[in-house]
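Annex B. Sample input.
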Amino acid sequence: MATSEQFHLFIQALQNMEGLRNDMRRNAQAYSSDVQSGRLTIAQVQDVARADAGQYQRRLKWMVDIFNNPTRRARLIGGITAIAGDVQELIDAYTQMKAVADQQEVVAWTTSVQIDAAVAALLAAVPAHDRVF
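Annex B, continued. Sample output.
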């Protein structure tokens, strides 16, 4: 049985990863609509996307910090195990989102077609999860 500390760390990690997933998808969809509506230029959207990627990296680093600290890693795994969860699922989600964030940090968009293609690729790479709200 997990301690409340283990469970709490797991919940925070899960909320971070799911929040990041939702933010990545929502922001990507905004890139296309901002250009199509004329609200932002392609260069401005590119700057926003790069800034967003920096924030994604910051949030992903929280997970790296947990896994690199043996005590915190054991607590997280204890929380996941208590609900019969799979640590690999969390690692896989991290890997998906890290790849997208790495790519987004160096975007070089010059057309709305490139933005739309990047958005489609992100949405495919970071699938939505079922949600209540």
